[in-house]
Specification:
- By secondary structure, this protein is mainly alpha-helical.
- The protein is built from 14 helices and 6 strands.
- It has helices spanning 10-23, 25-34, 43-59, 66-74, 80-98, 106-134, 138-154, 164-176, 184-190, 209-222, 236-248, 265-268, 330-344, 360-373; strands at residues 178-180, 193-194, 227-231, 257-261, 319-323, 348-352.
- The strands form 3 sheets. Strands 1-2 form a two-stranded antiparallel sheet. A two-stranded parallel sheet has the order 3-6. A two-stranded antiparallel ribbon has the order 4-5.
- The two termini are 23 Å apart.
């Protein structure tokens, strides 16, 4: 595949930068340190940035909803065209957050902003140097280069971990950097995934790595996070059907198969006397390990009432039953997809490359393409 690098349209990135600074205190602080008004190409972005800068200088936080009040005060002093554009931008921002689609990866956005401003500062520097050279002002051109060093220093990633402001920021960020956890006991064991982590599932072939990655994607969707899911081994149809089976619990092959039914040994041998027990009788015959089908023992129900306890009350003893699964179909998938969208938003995008047809460069390019379009 050809390796085509897609650039970011300046209007899109400037809109995202301003949006992040309006709603997030830390990003607003970073922006005020790294940006200068002439870095912005769009007039209304430059205007809103000056509002953000003044607000943060006074209150040490992002304006949030107060940006509407600032606009109401300032709009009479603006050109009509700029005022209209700011009004549209703020209206879109309010609608986006009202619909629950306002999640932003601020660390990633900060990196994008830093790279964008470096690019803009280099372009502006080049224009100034060329202008001075054209007029024979060599010393002025050299001064521009010296001044540029100070600009790049302000945009640097370096930080002092023992600085008091940094210490406060690190601990303030602990909760905001936590994204989601896997459900159930697995989530209790592993805790929450955090922003900037790289997580890998490693195992030999056919051990369930792709299955676990899919479960990770589902857990992130249920946390209302935006998910980009890449497959480098399956085509579009295979990938989609695997997801459909996961969300509906239906199957393409409807032959009977074994399904586990969780139970407790104390329930089976009738030694459990707890009130929360679901059965009134046992099923395990004396001096025998052979069990009848629990479905044919009157009054017996598998019990997992104590499964989450850590006191040894529950002793796992699973049954296996033969079940004929229901067939996967368009009606069930359509209904479940609508339910997922209503509950968790429209946050999943999938890219499926057939085996050996793509590289990580292709994935990076397609991700940048998704970012600029969606």
């Amino acid at each position: 595949m050809a390796n085509i690098k897609r650039g970011i349209v300046s209007g899109d990135i400037e809109k995202r930068i301003i949006t992040g600074a309006i709603v997030n205190d830390q990003f607003c602080s970073q922006l005020c340190r790294m940006a200068q008004k002439h870095y912005f190409k769009i007039d209304y972005a430059r205007i809103v940035y000056l509002w953000l800068q003044a607000y943060y200088k006074q209150f040490k936080k992002a304006p949030g909803k107060e940006i509407q009040n600032i606009f109401a005060i300032e709009q009479d002093t603006m050109k009509e065209a700029d005022a209209d554009l700011v009004k549209i931008f703020l209206s879109e921002l309010s609608q986006k957050y009202a619909e629950g689609d306002g999640h932003i990866n601020y660390e990633y956005l900060a990196d994008q902003a830093r790279n964008y401003f470096k690019e803009r500062s280099l372009i502006l520097l080049s224009e100034k140097i060329q202008g001075h050279i054209a007029l024979g002002r060599i010393e002025h051109a050299e001064n521009e280069v010296r001044n540029f060093n100070r600009v790049t220093k302000n945009i640097s990633n370096w930080f002092n971990p023992f600085d008091q402001a940094t210490i406060g920021t690190i601990f303030d960020d602990d909760e905001s950097n936590q994204l989601f956890a896997m459900p159930g006991v697995l989530g209790e064991l592993g805790g929450k995934f955090e922003r900037d982590w790289l997580v890998a599932f490693m195992a030999p072939m056919k051990r369930g790595k792709s299955w676990w990655l899919q479960e990770l994607a589902i857990a992130a969707i249920e946390a209302r996070l935006k998910v980009a899911y890449f497959s480098f081994e399956m085509n579009k149809n295979s990938m989609a059907k695997r997801l459909y089976k996961r969300i509906t619990s239906l199957a393409s092959n409807t032959d009977e198969r074994k399904y586990p039914v969780m139970d407790c040994m104390r329930n089976q041998d009738n030694t459990c006397k707890k009130l929360e027990r679901t059965s009134t009788v046992g099923v395990k015959p004396p001096d025998s390990d052979k069990l009848p089908n629990f479905r044919y023992v009157q009054g017996y129900m598998p019990c997992v009432a104590c499964r989450d306890r850590r006191d040894g009350s529950y002793i796992s003893a699973a049954w296996y039953v033969m079940i004929k699964p229901k067939e996967l179909g368009i009606r069930a998938v359509s209904k479940k997809s609508k339910d997922l969208k209503m509950l968790y938003g429209n946050n999943l995008r999938v890219m499926a490359y057939p085996a050996f047809s793509a590289s990580f460069d292709d994935a990076e390019n397609d991700l940048e393409d998704l970012e600029s379009q969606d």
